[in-house]
Amino acid sequence: MDIIHLLPDSVANQIAAGEVVQRPSSVVKELMENSVDAGATSIDVLIMDAGRTSIRVIDDGKGMSETDARLAFERHATSKIRKAEDLFSLHTMGFRGEALPSIAAVAQVQLKTRIAANDLGTDLTIEGSRVVMQEPCSCPVGTDIEVRNLFYNVPARRKFLKSNQTELGNIMQDFERIALVNPTVSFSLTHNDTLIVRLPAANLRQRIVGVFEKKLNEQLLAVDVDTTLARITGFVGRPESARKKGAHQFFFTNGRYMRHPYFHKAVMDAFTHLIPEGEQVPYFIYFDVAPENIDVNIHPTKTEIKFENDSAIWQILQAAIRDTLGRFNAVPTIDFDVQGRPDIPTFEANPTQPVRAPQLEYNPDYNPFRKHSTPRPTDDWAQLYDVARLQASATPDTSMQSEAPDLFDTEGDMEMSSDHFQFRGQYILTAVRSGLMIVEQHRAHLRILYEQYLKQMQSRSATTQGLLFPEMIHLAPSDAQLLDEITDALSSLGFDITSLGGGSFSIQGIPSGLDGVDASTLLTQMIADAREEQPAQSALSDLNHRLALALARNTSIAVGQALSAQEMDTLLADLFQCENPNMTPNGKPTLAILSPRDIDQYF
Ligand code: ADP
Ligand code: MG
């Protein structure tokens, strides 16, 4: 006896729905994408009870004719592709023709739609895949579709919905992703009759700031590179915007949100040594690639996309971000390790249009050593030494005083070779009497600047460099109050700041010698540093110490910066004029010495 039979459509649709419609947010995503595909300039999303009761999407797109409105709910009915080859030149979000029939299989759907050519639209009601009503109606051009009582006929699914908060969170996440790729479309999201967000048509930067927060605006640096393989645009956060968690990170490909752990690594690698390890920066990166170069057979619920040339794109992406960081002088470094930059591969495929390597730009005049090039007279630092000793005895157990044995305590050790060698853009190697000395350049510079700034504060000898154009900053009330409290200490460092009231301040001058440093970013960072709680017994709880350290931190040379022989010489000379050359102000070693015996052991 034959036992095989075809499933009725309603059952087949319900099975498909199990994949396409997993939760209310899937419905929101599919409906919004249809509106985008229909060329809408305005899309309103209205949700009741986190999507359980109702999900309604209203657009002003091209709408559907009476017949199309009915056909749209048939399986594999789509206006977006006609033949298999079309799959390779896809420019729409949808193409499978699965969403509407799947949704209609597990919910009650009401659709009102009109095309511009008709005076009357059509009003259609479907329940569990069956059309229960269709009649003409008067409505604006576009589509108004409402999905009610999702999973009303699939109790098991309905039971597995998460809390309203979770489901609404998912909806907002999908809403955000679509809003972020369609900045010229205006969107609104309303939940239980309360408007949650309204996003007017805008440019990409405004859209990102509109979706998230205003203060992102100052953090975003534009990325833009065009090669034959891909065009990559968007924004990355400045290194200062790095956070332990919660950074907004997005990739999009051809208008579609994408997760891509491999490309994520390319972005984070570009920030190596610029941000603390383990921290994250925001990024919004948009890839435009020829549709034939990615796997289009994207499952509606999957967010991974396969690229044909992903390792080449990895390199282009990383080079583009490094270029951005260099161009905006986001890092006060001279050298970007040009040698280590990946070569952009050239492809035979299109020899007339070679892949263009992003250009590296930097400020060749910036020299962080300029202000230290003359060694200070010895009696000067001897005096500093006394001052520091006095303080040290006044504040017992300070983290500035290292427990470690003094590595550099004998006069004789100062006899060092005049030949220095820079290793990995991070360490300066030089021969001293007691062995091979290795100095960490960033930490050493931190120590030098810290002592210098501290001394200037104490003697009120800092000089100010006036800004050509005073910069305005606006602070939250708590930050504004803090800045009021520390204005005096900041002016002893060389800042010239005036409070304008209402949380607004004007920066007229910054400490001399900080060429290429962005005044408002620096100040914002210093305020954040000043707020950070320090252990009470630490000498660093003293405001002067904290501010000197904060300024040093923000102006010292980075790891990765190439140093000339002269610069290394100056750095070492300055370091050994410090009161405590062996440690950073927060107690990390600045140098180590390998004794001849250590070295002999290797041979
Ligand atoms: P797909 O988007 O994959 O084509 P859907 O089931 O989502 O499949 O939609 C089926 C068809 O219905 C679409 O191809 C489109 O022609 C039409 N359609 C759906 N939503 C809209 C809308 N908001 N405005 C105009 N046409 C729409
Ligand atoms: Mg669709």
Q: In a few lines, what is going on in this structure?
A:
Helix content is 33%, strand content 22%. The chain is of the alpha+beta class.
Shape estimate: elongated
* Largest sheet composition: 8 strands, mixed
Structural class: alpha+beta
In round numbers, the mean pLDDT is 80
CATH class of the largest domain: Alpha Beta
What ligands can be seen in this structure?
Answer: adenosine-5'-diphosphate, magnesium ion
Count of individual helical segments: 17
Query: Which fold name corresponds to the CATH topology of the largest domain?
Result: Ribosomal Protein S8, Chain: A, domain 1
How much strand content do the residues show? 15-25%
Show the helix and strand layout.
Layout: H1 9-20, H2 24-37, E1 42-48, E2 54-59, H3 66-71, H4 99-105, E3 108-114, E4 121-127, E5 130-137, E6 142-148, H5 155-159, H6 164-181, E7 186-191, E8 194-199, H7 204-211, H8 216-219, E9 220-226, E10 231-237, E11 249-253, E12 256-258, H9 261-270, E13 283-288, H10 310-327, H11 378-394, E14 416-423, E15 427-432, E16 435-440, H12 441-459, E17 464-474, H13 477-493, E18 496-501, E19 504-511, H14 519-531, H15 543-555, H16 565-575, E20 591-594, H17 596-600
Parallel strand pairs: 1-7, 11-13
Antiparallel strand pairs: 1-2, 2-6, 3-4, 3-6, 4-5, 7-8, 9-10, 10-13, 11-12, 14-15, 15-16, 16-20, 17-19, 18-19
Helix pairs in contact: 1-4, 2-6, 6-7, 9-10, 12-15, 12-16, 13-15, 14-15
The chain binds adenosine-5'-diphosphate and magnesium ion.
